[in-house]
Amino acid sequence: MKYFDHVEKIEFEGKDTDNMFAFRHYNPDEVIAGKKMKDHLRFAIAYWHTMTEDGSDPFGAPTHIRTWYGDTPMETAKNRVEAFFEIIEKLGAEYFCFHDVDIAPQGDSLEEFFENLDEITDLIKEKMEETGTKLLWNTANMFSHPRFNNGAASSNNADVFAYAAAQVKKGLEISKKLSGENYVFWGGREGYESLLNTDMKFETDNIARLFKMAINYGEKIGHKPQFLLEPKPKEPSKHQYDFDAATTLAFIQKYDLEGDFKLNLEANHATLAGHTFEHELNVARDYNALGSIDANQGDLLLGWDTDEFPTNIYSTTLAMYEILENGGIAPGGINFDSKVRRSSHEMDDLLLAHIAGMDSFARGLKAAARLKEDGFFENLIKERYSSYEEGIGAKILNDEVDLESLSQYALQNDDIQLKSSHLETVKARLNDYLV
């Protein structure tokens, strides 16, 4: 069965097109900064928001019209695979991502869940071979079920830890089966509700134990994806241990996980942490730990994870600049961890929303490439720190001074002249690259 027969494969038609089902800016084979646009962007479609989101919220019932529901959970799961790969083909995306519970019903036991996963991933593998689509990453959902009420690896209950370990083991086997390029851990409930009854060190030690088990098992089965941690400060936990990029990098360093783990950063999670997306990308890049990104945006008027499709060109430009400065993002990619709005309830909105997001990142890429080609930020930064290029500044960088010699210098040069940053003009000039 086809679910989008009325829509042809979505092609690039340019910004003057009136065709809703066309790219206005994303031209996959256009060469930007020495690489095809599709190779810079490595777009991935998220299974969860695309196939399982129903438009419900705490105040209202589902609104989304979906035509893939069958008479049984497994029939629905199989129909979703068919529809999902049709969406991927229409969009021309080359990658996808999923949680284990997205693709298969959990059934009445862990054994039944694993059997369902085997059956559905057999079907997914067939579709991957038919379409040439690749698995960017998969992960285990260890936060939705009530058993994870107090966390997974961080749970106070050892049986829950064991259950989580079993899911991770199966996830890595699926990753190998589908040739996954990355494997993600998102600690949705790896955090605490109250410190009154929490031993943080005990819990984070246990999280690290699970991660090291995953590394060892990957080596045992001959599969070494890039492992990724995804920071988020709160929601659903009051305080999550992977609060932001810096906190997560400190965790990686503390438990000697460098070389095995990098970061999967999400724009909306950065907002919740009180950061910009480009800040989080920059922090990760400084530690050589920028692995992949989840593309979405939050509503700054709302205090939760709204996961809107990215349409803010300012944000996508600065994000793509960080990625270009990183030398690219492979083997990671740009995964649309985004959901259509409650009022965007028609099937076609799944395609239209992804078109909007892909076009927005394409525009960001083109603007970022122009900024880089012109040396816009490089020249600003070079000028700002020019006092370190010679004289006392050069001596500081070359470690040729100490507190005594710097104090003597300062006593003789205390009439300090500061230059204006002209920051308003800088922002105005940046706007010129966005239009």
Task: Write up what this structure looks like.
Helix 11 packs across helix 12 (348-374). 39% of the residues are buried. Strands 5-6-7-8-10-12-13-14 form an eight-stranded parallel barrel, surrounded by four helices. A two-stranded parallel sheet has the order 1-2. A two-stranded antiparallel sheet has the order 3-4. The chain starts with 10 loop residues before the first strand and ends with a helix. The radius of gyration is 24 Å and the shape is globular. It has 435 residues and is of the alpha/beta class. Helix 6 links the parallel strand 7 and strand 8. The protein contains 16 helices and 14 strands. The longest helix is centred in the C-terminal third of the chain and has 27 residues, at 348-374.
What is this structure's SSE topology?
Layout: E1 11-12, E2 22-23, E3 31-32, E4 35-36, H1 37-41, E5 43-46, H2 47-52, H3 73-91, E6 95-99, H4 100-103, H5 110-131, E7 134-139, H6 158-177, E8 182-185, E9 191-192, H7 200-220, E10 226-229, E11 239-240, H8 245-254, E12 261-266, H9 267-272, H10 277-286, E13 290-294, H11 313-325, E14 334-336, H12 348-374, H13 376-384, H14 391-397, H15 403-412, H16 423-434
Parallel strand pairs: 1-2, 5-6, 5-14, 6-7, 7-8, 8-10, 10-12, 12-13, 13-14
Antiparallel strand pairs: 3-4, 9-11
Mean pLDDT: 97
Q: How many helices in DSSP terms?
A: 16
Query: Could you tell me how far the N terminus lies from the C terminus, measured between alpha carbons in angstroms?
Result: 42 Å
Order of helices and strands: EEEEHEHHEHHEHEEHEEHEHHEHEHHHHH
Q: Low-confidence runs (pLDDT<50, min 5 residues)?
A: none
Rg computed from alpha carbons, rounded to a whole number of angstroms: 24 Å
Overall structural class, as computed from helix and strand content, comes to alpha/beta
Strand percentage: 5-15%
| Sheet with the most strands, sense and barrel status | 8 strands, parallel, barrel
Q: Roughly how much helix do the residues carry, as a percent range?
A: 40-55%
Mass-distribution shape: globular
Total DSSP E strands: 14
Strand order in the largest sheet = 5-6-7-8-10-12-13-14
